[in-house]
C-alpha cells in the first residue's frame, strides 16, 4: 500500500466546538489578537471564522452542550508559537486578567533543559491551549521531569 503524494502540507485551520460563542469570541479575540473574518448569527447555527493578516486560523462552532472532556479521545491541546518569551508573558498577563485557568504557574520549559516553553491554560470551555516561544523558557524548572510538559496536564 503506497502513501499519498502530498508535497506541501500544513495545517489549514483548526475548528473548535464551544458552548457559548458570546463568551468564547471575546476570549479568543483578546488573547490571540484575532479578527473576525466571517460570522454566522442564525439561531442554532452560530459560528465565527477568526484569523490574522487575512489568513484563517481558527473556527468556533457553537454546537456543544458541555465543557471539553479532557478524558475523551480527541484534541489534546492547541498550541500557538510566538517569537519571544516576552510575548508569552504578555499573553499570560491578559489571561490572568481574564481569570483563565493555568496548568502550571507561569512560563515553563517544554522539558528539563529545554530552551523552548510557554504557558498552558484553558479557554472558557476547558479546551487546553498553549502559547510558547522557541527560546527563553529555560530559566524555570520543568514541571513534568522527563515527560514533555505539554503532554500530561
Automatic annotation (TrEMBL):
- Does the keyword Metal-binding feature in the UniProt annotation? yes
Q: Which InterPro entries match?
A: Fosfomycin_Res_Enzymes, Glyas_Bleomycin-R_OHBP_Dase, Glyas_Fos-R_dOase_dom, Glyoxalase_1_CS, VOC_core
Which Gene3D superfamilies would you find in this protein's record? 2,3-Dihydroxybiphenyl 1,2-Dioxygenase, domain 1
**Keywords of the record:** Metal-binding
Q: Which SUPFAM superfamilies match?
A: Glyoxalase/Bleomycin resistance protein/Dihydroxybiphenyl dioxygenase (SSF54593)
Which residue ranges does the record assign to the VOC domain? 10-134
Keyword Metal-binding appears in the UniProt entry: yes
Specify the protein name: VOC family protein
Q: Which source organism does the UniProt entry give?
A: Actinomadura rugatobispora
